[in-house]
Amino acid sequence: MKPSCHLYRRLPRHDTQRPSAVTIGNFDGVHLGHQAILDRVHAHADGHGLAPTVMTFDPHPRAFFAARAGKPELAPAQISTLRDKIQLLCQHGMRQVVLARFDARLSGMAPEDFIRRLLVEGLNTRWLLVGEDFRYGYKRGGDVDLLRSMGRQQGFEVDAIADVPDASGRRISSSELRLALSRGDLEHARGLLGYQYRISGHVGHGQKIGRTIGYRTLNHHVPSHCALRNGIYVVRVHGLAPSPLPGVASLGVRPTVTQQGRRVLETHLLDCNINAYGKLSSVEFIRFLRDEKKFPDLPTLIAAIDDDARRARDHFAFHGL
């Protein structure tokens, strides 16, 4: 039986006093560097009878400060949807996920209060793993030395972990992953993630234009600052059938058919017609085909989609699913 994973939006926890092994971070993308941290937390927790725990934040602290400064363009692009991030954290052995609301109260909390309220009273922390340059509390005034000092007083141990390098010795980072996704470089992104990039969510209703031109689509909401480059992709869709389904997807603002400018992910399943409204599914991005374009009319758009679908079929005919 698979162990359960509990999500907490407030601390202290309402249902347990179990001592915890904790790590703290944004974990956007849950890339290989993050996975190394999570594996270490899980191993320590397993060996010491602790609950493996991750504390993460929503929104991203940099997004909060960018909005407060009136400069939303400075917010980092979002790699994972919140659903995908939590799911990945649980898949990598976390049994408690704390989703802390990053707001004025949290950003203004004194470092000592951050430790006392969240780590000690909130999670009964006995072991904490953070990056060597981890900062927290008001104006990022807390550091690892303060954690260790208060840990000795409050009964928890602190370990620091250095950056995790890739096979070539380069630091694995969310910034590098965002750059790869912004370029549509799915191969490099896979090397940083250890898995193919994907976006999950419930299939929603769109404008239903696709069915009038012979290309019905599954519509998924994506973050407005999604890190992936707008364009057309070869994809696999999981969750709608026992095996993944081949498809071709468009991520972008659909400039030929609307002026709304809202980003949406539209996926056409190849040679398959499934009523998927409301169902949870995951779109796995396999290959970048081309950039999104504004076409002069619908016939030109349809011809381009025909070519996209043909190239996607050719890909699966050669590589399989």
Write a structural description.
With 321 residues, the protein is an alpha/beta fold. The chain has 2 domains: 6-161, Rossmann fold; 196-319, Beta Barrel (Elongation Factor Tu (Ef-tu), domain 3), CATH 2.40.30. It contains 9 helices and 12 strands. Helix 1 links the parallel strand 2 and strand 3. It is elongated.
- The CATH architecture of the largest domain can be given as 3-Layer(aba) Sandwich
Number of domains: 2
Question: Which parts are unreliable, with pLDDT below 50 for 5 consecutive residues or more?
Answer: none
Q: Tell me the strand percentage band.
A: 15-25%
| CATH fold-level name of the largest domain | Rossmann fold
Largest sheet at a glance? 6 strands, parallel
What is the CATH H-level superfamily of the largest domain? HUPs
Structural class: alpha/beta
Descriptive key words:
single chain; 321 residues; alpha/beta; Rossmann fold; Elongation Factor Tu (Ef-tu), domain 3; 6-stranded antiparallel beta sheet; 9 helices; 12 strands
Strand and helix map with partners:
Elements: E1 6-8, E2 20-24, H1 32-48, E3 51-58, H2 61-68, H3 82-91, E4 96-101, H4 104-107, H5 111-122, E5 125-131, H6 144-154, E6 157-161, H7 174-182, H8 186-193, E7 198-202, E8 218-221, E9 231-238, E10 245-252, E11 264-269, E12 280-290, H9 298-319
Parallel strand pairs: 1-4, 2-3, 2-5, 3-4, 5-6
Antiparallel strand pairs: 7-12, 8-11, 9-10, 9-12, 10-11
Helix pairs in contact: 5-6, 7-8
In short:
The chain has helices at residues 32-48, 61-68, 82-91, 104-107, 111-122, 144-154, 174-182, 186-193, 298-319; strands at residues 6-8, 20-24, 51-58, 96-101, 125-131, 157-161, 198-202, 218-221, 231-238, 245-252, 264-269, 280-290.
